[in-house]
Specification:
Keywords: Membrane, Transmembrane, Transmembrane helix
Order of helices and strands: HEEEHEEHEEHHHHHHHHHE
Number of strands: 8
Bound molecules: zinc ion
Helix content: 55-70%
Largest sheet: 5 strands, antiparallel
Structural class: alpha+beta
Low-confidence stretches: none
Strand order of the largest sheet: 1-2-3-5-4
Strand content: 5-15%
Distance between the termini: 35 Å
Shape: elongated
Number of helices: 12
Number of domains: 2
Transmembrane segments: 158-181, 187-205, 217-238, 268-284
Mean pLDDT: 91
Length: 307
């Protein structure tokens, strides 16, 4: 449980509070995000790319001096990143990183634009997309109010949501099948993604939040697994008996019987366990539950700070 120890040490040393897997602080106007992961804490903060390019050798030397860590750079969001994973060193390591942020990032924070509107002169630090960012009070307020409205009212298009979830499910199934056929092996862990594919499709097509969404995604992810087992069996039979796919499909009742026989299900236990793991995660985390989503937003609003 080294990560729990890391959170505790950092919290005590730097007065950080963790909410929903995130801690955040502002160093001289520069918002810093600390994110929990399974075994470590990932830290990120804005830095202009040119400053990183020019200075990273210097400050990575400093970081190395406090043992072990190095900073990386995420070009897409223009963020310096590092990973803290050693409980006996994290306090020192984060301390060194804070100095680097003070010296090389904070002087340029004005250049970091509000992610909502792309304009400068931000007046607030808030969580945006799981990152502590400089934003405008009005942009953040408008966006979160709107999101709360959409979530709570159950607005959205159920028909499109269902189409999206189905599309996600079928896409997942097709990729899983392609991996099976072309790589000639099956990666069990991949099946954890079945539910996320259906969830992604549902959200992308603006399906409404609430119980209907939970049921739709659950059913579509089960459907994708059923489809996968069926199609895989069609392919295996076609291979084995050197038949055309069309010929095998004509015998679909028999294929169903074989694909969902206890023997074949036992054969696929590895995939099924990962699939059920993903589905269980979805049902426990309830990412489409109205109360859950709004509750998380409320918690994240605790990080709001005027700049
Ligand atoms: Zn803005």
């Amino acid at each position: 449980m080294s990560q729990a120890k890391i959170f505790k040490l950092l919290s005590e040393a730097y007065g950080l509070t963790w909410s929903g897997g995130i801690a955040a602080e502002e160093i001289d106007g520069c918002p810093v995000t600390l994110k929990e992961d399974r075994y470590y804490v990932q830290v990120s903060a804005y830095m202009p790319e040119r400053v990183y390019e020019a200075k990273h050798e210097i400050f990575n030397e400093q970081m190395k001096a406090v043992k072990g860590v190095k900073c990386g750079f995420d070009k897409k969001t223009s963020r310096i990143t590092t990973v803290l994973s050693q409980p006996n060193r994290v306090v020192e390591q984060y301390g060194a990183l804070r100095e680097i942020i003070k010296q090389y990032a904070a002087p340029y924070v004005e250049e970091d634009k509000c992610p909502y509107c792309g304009q400068g002169e931000c007046d607030m630090a808030a969580i945006y997309n799981n990152q502590y960012r400089r934003v405008h009070v009005r942009c953040h307020q408008y966006h979160t109010d709107r999101t709360r409205d959409v979530v709570l009212s159950g607005q959205g298009n159920l028909a499109m949501g269902i189409i999206g979830a189905l599309a996600g499910a079928v896409l997942f199934m097709a990729i899983a099948l392609a991996i099976g056929i072309f790589a000639e092996r099956s990666y069990g862990w991949f099946f954890v993604l079945a539910t996320f594919a259906a969830l992604g499709g549902y959200k992308l097509f603006h399906g409404p939040y609430g119980r209907t969404g939970m049921v739709t995604v659950t059913l579509c992810s089960i459907l994708s697994m059923v489809l996968y087992l069926f199609c895989e069996m069609v392919y295996l039979i076609a291979q084995y008996y050197e038949l055309a796919i069309g010929e095998v499909l004509k015998q679909w009742p028999a294929v169903i019987q074989i694909a969902f026989s206890p023997d074949n299900l036992a054969e696929s236990w590895f995939q099924l366990i990962f699939f059920l793991g993903g589905l269980a995660w979805f049902l426990i985390k309830r990412p489409l539950s109205k109360q859950k989503v709004v509750g998380t937003m409320d918690v994240m609003d605790d990080f709001n700070r005027a700049l």
